[in-house]
Amino acid sequence: MMGKEQKTFAVLTGGGDCPGLNAVIRGAAKTLLNHNCKVYGVLDGFNGLVHGKFWELNYANLSGVLPRGGTILGTTNRDNPFHMAVQKDGKLEFCDMRDKVLANLQKYNIEALIDIGGDGTLAIGAKLARECGVKVVGCPKTIDNDIIGTERTFGFDTAVAMAMDAVDRLHTTAESHHRVMVLEVMGRYAGWIALYCGIAGGADAILIPEIPYNIESVAQKINQRRADGKQFSIVVVAEGAKPVGGTISVSRVVKDSFEPLRLGGAGNKVAEDLEKITGVECRCTVLGYLQRGGSPTAFDRMLSTRYGVAAAEACLRGEYNVMMSLQNDKIVPVDLQIAGSGSRNVPLDSELIRTGRQIGISFGD
Ligand code: F6P
């Protein structure tokens, strides 16, 4: 693999961080370095692409990053180069910064960009490819597992493991105090984390955005358990869950973000309402950023490394405007435009939901 240095590539991580990002960066960069390419990491996601924050990656700065959570490149879930927030005379304005992006890619002689991110980051990558002719290869990142075109995003397995551990821990305290324990987990508008950790942890009810819930129905499940001699219950609530005819719980609005709404509060609402109806003491735990932090599981390290290597291989083949995806346990390229076109929810006819129902889990409907 020795020989003349070939093309130069850039790697960027965008959106919320998640376990496995460093493993993807490492997998992609090592593969490219091993083929005599030059590789830059773009710092702080699209902010760095606009402002020219490029950092050359080498074997030394890639060493030891595989098990590390977060991203060595930094990230942001605010900056969209096509609609970038800038303060002008104390006011927030949004500007199209695509010219700066193109100038920086030219300055560093970048052949193609490996765009590691969730649906927002991938949609920006898809637009850069579509409207500006940038060569882009995407890798599907997010704990939410909600990206179109892949069966699994990296980071999800680690988040589920963390959330399942929380469900296990809540069981012992719930049982001791004869309480209802509500656990709010992340996932934005998709219920994947709640569904997986709820089934894996043995929750009694799982409320997901895809199935608006009726609180009376959840209360009935808790009362039935009490009638059967089970004095405690565990309810897992996705942050995007909402009651039938009701609205989603929003915790804050981040004005300069390309996706301004941040979700939160669904778990507390469920706990309060359940306590009123059942008369049983209810407590809510919001798991929050613990789901995103820390070291990736073995599954996520493998998946991330495979995505990174496959993205680099696509670059070496000159195959662009694609996203790496997991299908039937194989990594295959899919159209980046499709991947960046929306988000993937739990199908209502999913075998997972059926599995939950068969073992008596309530989905609040
Ligand atoms: O997309 C990942 C995620 O952690 C979601 O599950 C959550 O809703 C959101 O990001 C939180 O965003 P922020 O980091 O801006 O609070």
Quick summary:
It is built from twelve helices and 15 strands.
Write the layout of secondary structure elements.
Elements: E1 8-13, H1 21-34, E2 38-42, H2 46-51, E3 54-56, H3 59-62, E4 84-88, E5 91-95, H4 98-107, E6 110-117, H5 119-132, E7 136-140, H6 156-177, E8 180-185, H7 192-201, E9 205-207, H8 215-227, E10 233-238, E11 250-253, E12 261-263, H9 266-278, E13 282-286, H10 298-317, E14 322-327, E15 330-335, H11 336-339, H12 351-358
Parallel strand pairs: 1-2, 1-6, 6-7, 7-14, 8-10, 8-13, 9-10
Antiparallel strand pairs: 2-3, 4-5, 11-12, 14-15
This protein binds 6-O-phosphono-beta-D-fructofuranose (F6P).
6-O-phosphono-beta-D-fructofuranose binds at residues 16, 77, 118, 142-144, 186-188, 239, 262-263, 292.
